[in-house]
Amino acid sequence: MEEEKRVSLKVEEGSQGLRLDQFIIGHLGLAVSRSRIQQLIDEKEVTVNQRPAKAHYKTKKGDSVMVVIPAPKSPQALPEDIPLDIVFEDEDILVINKPKDMVIHPACGNYSHTLVNALLHYGCKLSTISGPTRPGIVHRLDKDTSGLMVVAKNDLAHQNLARQFQKHTVQRKYIAIVKGKVEHDEGVIDYPLARHPQHRQQFTVSYLKSKEALTKYKVLKRYKDVTLLELMPHTGRTHQLRVHLKFLGHSILGDTRYGKANDFERMALHAVELGFYHPRSGDFVSFKLDIPKSFSGYLDRMQ
Questions:
Q1: CA-CA distance, 120 to 115, in Å (whole number)?
Q2: pLDDT digits over 214-255, tens only?
Q3: Active site members
Q4: Less Cβ crowding at N or C end of the chain, within 10 Å?
Q5: Are residues 176 and 263 in the same domain?
């Protein structure tokens, strides 16, 4: 059984003035995820000079930082017999076609029927870097978004893939059906995103306390009242595509959070293509899906 880990760090001159969470990430690399480090800080498992500190604490030369990583508790996620649509599998990775309405991992309000529950039942080895409730999870898709995801089966693969996502070298393409006729055949949406000041579960375009967000788009076909778009996110911000399209005045059909109710049965956003460098061979691999039947059937009726 895995035991508690303790990591002692000293702040040298070149590292002073950093946020505490950034300092720890810089020294532990991808061995522990950013969200896991922030969770440890919140749980007072990180001390500075033997005192608990906040994530935004600015490090000073000579500070002694102790990071305690508790032994994993019994996983909250339990195996569930949920079918997986596996596109590719080898000793390092799984590439799956995630269905709509599936949450990625257990969290408040969703402790079952998640992708993690399905992966645990499938029975393959999974990376441990993201913690016991997120085995194998390197990146996410929204619950209502379907399509391609890569899952890591060991920690080396996880670290390699996480680095590629961090450097924005992973190639992702989505298709979306959006409201109205998009004017330009292609373009770039380059607007930073921040959490919405009133609706904390949403994000919005903002230049205050925001993060860079860049999306390229291409019109595949215009219909009577809607447009079929190809979307290529350069960054991977939460709800990025949904917020960017809302800002353009072309909300994704079926997106009740950032748009209005309409007659489409689901959110019309599908991760259709995923390409990355294989974590073991280094070869670039790419996977592609067909347009969902619900999309093509709807568009046929819009001719």
A1: 9
A2: 999 999 999 999 999 999 999 999 999 999 999 999 999 999
A3: 142
A4: N
A5: yes
Residues 54 and 94 in one domain: no
Condensed to tens digits (0 to 9), the pLDDT of residues 12-65 reads 988 899 999 989 988 887 667 778 888 899 989 999 999 999 989 999 999 999
**Residue at token pair 């969902």:** 292
What is the total count of domains within the chain? Answer: 3
Tokens of 103: 């949450």
Q: For residue 198, what are its two tokens? A: 């009133």
Residues 6+ apart with CB under 8 A from 243: 193, 202, 203, 204, 205, 213, 258
pTM above 0.85, yes or no: no
Q: Find residue 149's DSSP bridge partners.
A: 96
Q: End of a domain among 136, 167, 198?
A: 167
**What is the chain's Cα-based Rg?**
21
pLDDT at 111 over 90: no
Distance between CA atoms of residues 160 and 166, nearest Å: 10
